[in-house]
Design a protein that fits this description.
316 residues, alpha/beta, six-stranded mixed sheet, Rossmann fold
Length: 316
């Protein structure tokens, strides 16, 4: 890691995305107090915590929850035993442990699996057990290190919905470490992109979709496109310019292209169009070929900018 500076607000879902080897897992181990930084400081609510030792460090760690890609459950314990483990380590009385475990299993939808062996569970059920265990000691922050990477797409969606629901109910701060932009799109409020140990771009997720500033961000966004689009976009008429248009919430339903054709006498071909839901806000994206008088095209691009439509030029 190289001089990374992040400010994560309370009660949000914050995504940290990067390719394999970019430094995501190292960063989460630092901010979850599993490792100490060689330099700099880690602060929670303005209080420095990376220099804690002994009991103070253990007490602070208990206020953090962590879930992992490979679940990290005890095969020798059943579901109840896995969720109870952090409470036992904290020295909680048995009657309190029993009530808390039942509460958590109901929260994650596994109230009927209390006595089940871990080996008998599906991947999604194992991750639900891991989530319940991570919440046992009432954490203030929940760290999710590639928490859905080992799951199939349908199960991934259900786990992300669960995390979002828990975050809303418990007013948690959730930090999502991932290399999948789909995860960021589905539930994150803010995102930072890491490349080679450096944060190259940060901000609201919806702004990242509308106005990506770096090539790394654009690469992640392009990865969301279906394969068919690559075939569709091969070749470009010599008389046309190709653009990717990003529509914000208030322009998604407006007849933007009709207005361009009418005002600037352009020929516009729609090659691709889609709408993503980002943080419950519709974000439209369209790829078009635009041809006409050069001056009219320039005016049209200016008009789009004035009406909150971000434009990206595309080379065929």
């Amino acid at each position: 890691m190289r001089e990374i500076s992040l400010d994560i607000s309370s009660n949000v879902i914050y995504g940290i995305i990067g390719k394999s080897g970019a430094g995501k897992s190292t960063l989460v181990r630092l901010i979850s107090l599993l490792e100490r930084p060689d330099g700099g400081a880690i602060l929670f609510d303005g209080e420095r915590v990376d220099n804690l030792t002994g009991k103070a460090l253990l007490d602070r760690r208990r206020r953090l929850g962590m879930i992992f890609q490979n679940f990290n459950l005890f095969s020798s314990r059943n579901v109840f035993g896995n969720v109870a483990y952090p409470l036992e380590i904290a020295g909680e009385p048995k009657n309190k442990i029993k009530g808390r475990v039942k509460e958590l299993l109901a929260l994650v939808g596994l109230e009927d699996k209390e006595k089940s062996q871990i080996s008998k569970l599906s991947g999604g059920q194992k991750q639900r057990v891991a989530i319940a265990r991570a919440l046992a000691n009432y954490p203030e922050i929940l760290f999710c290190d590639e928490a859905t990477s080992a799951l199939d797409p349908q199960t991934t969606i259900s786990i992300l919905e669960l995390i979002k629901d828990i975050q809303n109910k418990m007013n948690l701060t959730v930090v999502m470490i991932t290399h999948h932009m789909e995860v960021v799109r589905e539930i994150c409020d803010y995102v930072s992109i890491i490349d080679d140990g450096v944060v190259v771009e940060s901000g609201l997720v919806k702004d990242m979709f509308l106005y990506p500033h770096t090539e790394t961000a654009r690469e992640f966004l392009r990865a969301l496109k279906p394969i068919e689009e690559k075939e569709l976009l091969s070749g470009q008429p010599s008389c046309a310019y190709r653009y990717r248009l990003h529509f914000a919430e208030d322009t998604v339903k407006k007849p933007v292209l009709a207005e361009l054709i009418r005002q600037f006498q352009l020929d516009i071909s729609i090659l691709s169009a889609t709408i993503h839901t980002v943080a419950e806000i519709p974000i439209g994206e369209m790829i078009v070929d635009m041809s006409g008088v050069q001056g009219n095209i320039d005016q049209a691009l200016q008009w789009l900018a004035e009406h909150s439509v971000a434009v990206e030029s595309i080379d065929a």
